[in-house]
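so my prof wants the structure for this chain in the tokens format not the other one, which i didnt know existed until like an hour ago. anyway here's the sequence
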Amino acid sequence: MSTLPRISWIGLGIMGSPMSENLIKAGYDVTGFTLEREKLDRLTAAGGTAAGSIAEAVRDADVIITMVPASPHVEAIAYGPDGILENARSGSLLIDMSSITPRTSVDLAAAAKDKGVRVLDAPVSGGEAGAVEAVLSVMVGGEQADFDEAKPVFEALGKTIVRCGPHGSGQTVKAANQLIVAVNIQACAEAVVFLEKSGVDLTAALDVLNGGLAGSTVLTRKKDNFLRRDFRPGFRIDLHHKDMGIVTDAARDVGAALPVGAVVAQLVASLRTQGDGGLDHSALLRGAERLSGARL
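here's what i got, hopefully its the right format
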């Protein structure tokens, strides 16, 4: 009989499926729920258990992990008679790994406390590849004792695991992360257009740039996307648009100016209006190309 906590996983998308599978590989008993039948079949094929509802998934869980797209989705699965808080055991630990507003996380922690459920906000960075390879960065908000208890779970999912402060802090740091990533991708995209129009060997140029001060994890992860124009979604423009809204609103609340971030937020938004919302965020290259006269 395993002494590891029983885990319920809600949300088996691009990130949630490989993350839940990494917990199964680490020996955890994982029961999952999502709306897509094929994702549940994937979980069971990996050794997990499929549940027919949120209530069924969380009823016997020691740890409940959620990974859904945005704040409204978190609220939809957390609240109400069929939601997590009404059906989770008192004393269980709810870890929300979605990327949502800091305020949503703070409100969730307060509501869960009334039900005897502890909460951590623990969004991640690293994209689909990081999820598959279990090398995500995990930024956590919540009580130190709850973080310490959850640390072994996080270690099955990522490599850089840091408690950033009280409830909502993880989401604040994730918002900053998404700001940096979007600005970085946009800078890389503009460089690609500049290099190609200048007739430079793009592969050679990106290799040498990535070996110097201009190098970054973004360039390492997205270089092949740029070279091959491969924009199959690892992290969709639609989701990064949502995240840029989060960081813009949060910055306004605390009085922080984000002049470059505001411009990139508009560039991300423009891609969505042009029908590119379902593409990977490296498709910011398409926006830079259009601005330079390309007809795509």
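also thought this was worth mentioning. The mean pLDDT is 97.
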